[in-house]
Amino acid sequence: MILPIVAYGDPVLKKLGEEINKDYPNLKELIDNMYETMDGAYGVGLAAPQIGLPIRLFIVDTSPFAEDEALSPEEQKELKAFKRTFINAQIINEEGDEWAFNEGCLSIPDVREDVFRKPTITITYVDENFEKHTETFTGLIARVIQHEYDHIEGILFTDKLSTLKKRLIKGKLANISKGKISVDYRMRFPNQKKKR
Description:
Number of domains: 1
CATH class: Alpha Beta
Radius of gyration: 16 Å
Structural class: alpha+beta
Strand content: 25-35%
Number of strands: 9
Largest sheet: 5 strands, antiparallel
Distance between the termini: 26 Å
CATH topology: Peptide Deformylase
Order of helices and strands: EHEEHEEEEEHHE
Low-confidence stretches: none
Strand order of the largest sheet: 2-3-4-7-8
Number of helices: 4
CATH architecture: Alpha-Beta Complex
CATH superfamily: Peptide deformylase
C-alpha cells in the first residue's frame, strides 16, 4: 500500500527515531509498504519519519542511479544490485575528504542543493530478519545511507546548508509546508487547512 509522504514542516521529521524490536506491530507489512511508497515516488531511499513514524528504520534502493552513463560498469552494477533495509542503525565511523553532491528529498519536493558528506561510512544495523551487520560503504551508496540516516536522527539535508542558501530557499520551504506544491505522489502537509 502506498503511504502519504510527510512534507517539510511536520514535527515528526525533527524527532530522534526510537529503536524498535522484532515484535514491532506489522513490521514486514510496514517495510513492504515503504518500498512500494518509495518506488511510487521514484525515490532511492525512504525513512520511517517520512511516513510519520519516529522510529529507527529506513530503506535504500540505489538501482535508479545505475542508469547514469557517467559511471563505470562496475559502479553501475553495484548500484543496480543495492537494496537494503536498515533497522536501529548507528553510523560508527565516517572518513575521507568531504565531497559535494546535489541532493533532494521526497519530503522536500522541488528543492535540490549541494550537500557535503564524507565518502566512506561504517554502520551497524539489523536487517528485516533482525540479523546484525557491520558494514562499510563508499560513494553514492554511502551518500544515500547518510541522507536516510539523518532522517532517523531528526536531521534534514536542508539543515546542512549555509545560512545564505537557507535564506534563498525559505519561501519554497514555506510553500511546501502549506501544501502549495504540485507532486505526482501522495503527500501529507502539516499546515494544510483541513477540508470540512
